[in-house]
Every structure is written in C-alpha cells, then in structure tokens.
Amino acid sequence: MTEQTARRPSRLFRNLNAKIASIPMILNALVIFLGGTIWTIVYSFTDSRLLPRLNFVGLDQYRRLWVTPRWLVAVENLAIYGACMLVFSLIIGFLLAALLDQKIRFEDTFRTIFLYPFALSFIVTGLVWQWILNPNFGVQHVVRSLGWTDFAFDPLYDSSIVIYGILIAALWQGTGLVMCLMLAGLRGIDEDIWKAARVDGIPTWKTYLFIIIPMMRPVLITTLVIIAAGIVKVYDLVVAQTSGGPGISSEVPAKYVYEYMFHAQNLGQGFAASTMMLLTVIIVIVPWAYLEFGRRK
Question: How does it sit in the membrane (predicted)?
Fold first, then answer.
C-alpha cells in the first residue's frame, strides 16, 4: 500500500461535519435546479399545453417563438434595457463610490441613503416610480404648475420610450449596490499607489482610468455578472409600472414566459422561451467563469 493510498481515508473523513451539513444543499442543487433545468429543456421540444406531455415536435416551439412579434419586442426591450443598465449603473455607481472614497463628512449617512432603495422590493419601486412618472400628478404636473406649461415627460405612456421609464426606476434602485461594490474595491487599493501617482504628477482622472480601474478588475467582473443576472430576469418592475403596456411595448422575456405558462396555458412555448433565457444566462456566466478561473491552475 502506497503512502498516497494510506492517506485517502483520512482525506475522506476530513471536515466530516461540514460535508454532512452540505448534503441538503447539494441535493437541492442537483434535484431542483439541475433536474428542473433539464426537465424544462426536454419539454421545450414538446407540444405541451395545459399539462406537460412527452409528444415531441422538434424545434417547432422555437420556430414559433422567433416569429412571434411579442417575443421579438421583448428581446429588443431586454437588449436596450440591458445595455443602458450595464453602462449607466457602472458609471453612476463608480462616480458615487469615488466621491464617497474622498473621506467626506457624513459618509455613513450618504452611503445609507444611496443604498436604501436596494432594500425595497421591485414591486414597491415600480409603484413609486409609476406615481412619479404619472403625467397627472407626477414630475410633468409639478413642472407645469411652476409655469412651464409646454413641458412633457410621460415615458410610461409613450410606447417608443416606455422602456426608458422602466430603466429610470431600475437605476434608482440598483445603483446603490453597485456603488457599495465599487467602494469596497476602491478601499482595497493601497494608499501608497495614490501617493506615488501624486508624486509623479499624474492627474486624478488618469490615475482612476489607467491605474485604479484595471486594479479593480475582479470587482468589476463580479459587478457585471450581478447586474447582468438582474437584467435577464427583470419582471417585477415591468409588471408594477406598465404591465407590459402600452400594448406590448414594454414586454420582457420573463413576463412572456409567465404569460404563456400560466395565462395562455401553452407550456411548450413557455418552456422554449425560458430555455432561451437560460441560454442568455450561460452566455453571461461562461465568460465570467473563464476570466475568473480558466487561467488559473
């Protein structure tokens, strides 16, 4: 018996309590998440209606999905919302973090104020911003009462810009979390780097752009993944603010899945749409996993 073979039992029983405690989580992941995912993908190739049934129809559900105007609008809205959310939440969150990193007075108070919206549910946020953007008693009404009678600001009632009204509420709620993540990354930068940059006469903006931000790469990647995951599953804000209206102009994939699975009683179509959402998540997660772990031994 080799020394390596003799060590195997001791390694097997090392941290035994922790391994036993992790069994429910492992079973939950395998049975519910992995099993549910496989089940959904399999039934997306069937013609299931009210109840699931194994009557395979190949790619018919996916062909029907990609010629449905409602789904195409949902994908377009998700692309616009996602691109704007990624860019603006990162920029605003980083700027707020950079300001708070200047050791300003009442920093804890400002940090709490900026982070507080994230503690609210998306339904509450959606309802609040539905009132704020309502032209009868919201921003438009207030500005017009001040004398600017021609002022118009009703994004939730204009089908061409309704997705931007939802974006405003999402930025208000999510930017605080991005700020905290960015602030944690900034606080992890060695103070000697700032001192060296000042000695060399490097402008502050160049220090941030060419030195600090590259050093915050792990924080930035993690933040991007968190934001992207929230983008793909956006649902509550849309339901609370517009319910997909006017018409279908603010439809998103998550709402499409819900409507077809529980209202239209077309499980096959709902499963196909949710599988496409899963594919979107994989497209986000795989590059992140490669960047974080792929190059390490």
Answer: Multi-pass membrane protein
